[in-house]
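pasting for ref
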Amino acid sequence: MDDLDKNMDAKDIKPPNKAAKAMVLFITAWFIILSALTCALPKPAMYSDLGNNYVNAITEGLKIDSGDTAWVLVSSCLVLFMTPGVAFFYGGMVDHKNVISTMFQSFVSMGFITVLWIFIGFSLSFGEDANGSGIMGHPKTYFFFEDTGNAPHASLCPTIPLILFSMFQLMFAIITPVLISGSLAERVNFYSWMIFICIWHILVYCPLVHIVWHPDGILRKWGFIDFAGGIPVEMASGYGALAGAIFLGPRNNNGGKHYPANVPHILLGTAIFWFGWLGFNAGSALTSNTLAANTFATTQAGAASAMITWIFLDILLGRQVTAAGACNGAVIGLVALTPSSGYITTGSGLIIGVIACFVCYFAGYYMKERTNIDDTLDVFAVHGLGGTVGVLCTGIFASKKVNIAGPNGLIYGNGELLGKHIAVVLVVVPFIMISTYCCFAIANFFIPIRVTNEEEMLGLDYSMHNESLSHHTGINGVNSIEYLKELETSFKSAKNPPKVENWQKVPNAQVEDVVVAVDNA
């Protein structure tokens, strides 16, 4: 038993509620249903044709390159490291009473998505194309990682083991739903959130990966290019976040003052983000060569130019330059370079960073001030619009001099590529919005995805997890859990409980002030 357990009074421990048990039942049933459906399907056509020679057929004549393998191994670790980076980034931005819950939403994805990916996600994303549709992989191709093995794959990863390729792609799958959580911060039910990510991964993420990156994917065959996840990661999370913010509605204190819980954590999260993103983009080359080096350079250039642009815009518009704002600018640059980094020059990377920051900066302020959509941490503006700008700029700045396997863009005389990218954006955005909204509706049907007003007032750290940043010393040396328990009791027993807006106006919503507000009600 650790120190926390020793110092916690037994009465402080909340037993699992009905929502937690419902979550366990739903996810267990979800796995059973997916297993039953997959087992009932026949083997993919290629298996039927080649039988036991299937693996030999896709690996014949291929050799593993030790340099490529080492680079993708390192890149996989860098991309996984980005998820704790998101946890610190988001956790530093929210109110102090929601830090633990916000960070924990990032960490649980590493567990749930890993299991789903091994189980069926990799097959749906990169398995043999199902019925020639170009939309979804056959779920039985790599069911439970069957036939992934240590050999290369002719069309997916000709110089590295297929199992390493699958692990690299897993890290993308883990971080994508994590990004969505920022738009729902401070009001999302943790148990319903876990149901959502399990549904969304299968119904939204995997099809997007297949159509964009699989050799038989409908968009890839049409000529659309996306180097490291402009659509499957950035736009999917950004527009998915917008759908979630609309579904949940605004926080009760939306329009009030918000104070980040820990700005150094925002800086730390951005540093981890930036560090990991170099592997995110450059690792997508799947080789340790000049393409990876160029991608590394363009990614760095885009992040730097976007961060500087944000700072300059703050100054020119008479706003105070903040560390949190500059961090947002850097992330915008990294987002915009995700689809384009492997096809453009370093100079183009600088330009894209500036363009993306302009768009996202003003869009974010517009949403906060002119709409009632409460995207808590600006996920839509940063990842949705940033990803869209990156996808469109790929159609403009792509160069065969950088990547001989890709086409030229508009400035090199090929306007057709930009036309295709515009068309893809117009089709994909409604799909992401509608399908994600439906996933939220399904999760909400089983467990309300929004917490109650009382739970939101108490903070999700306590109401969802019975934890607090100041569990021991508390505020002014008093155990904060005791304050929260007193507040919870007072709120439930008060004849005229205080209106939410009364205490939300208190700077940082200090717990002792909230208790006073309840006592005076």
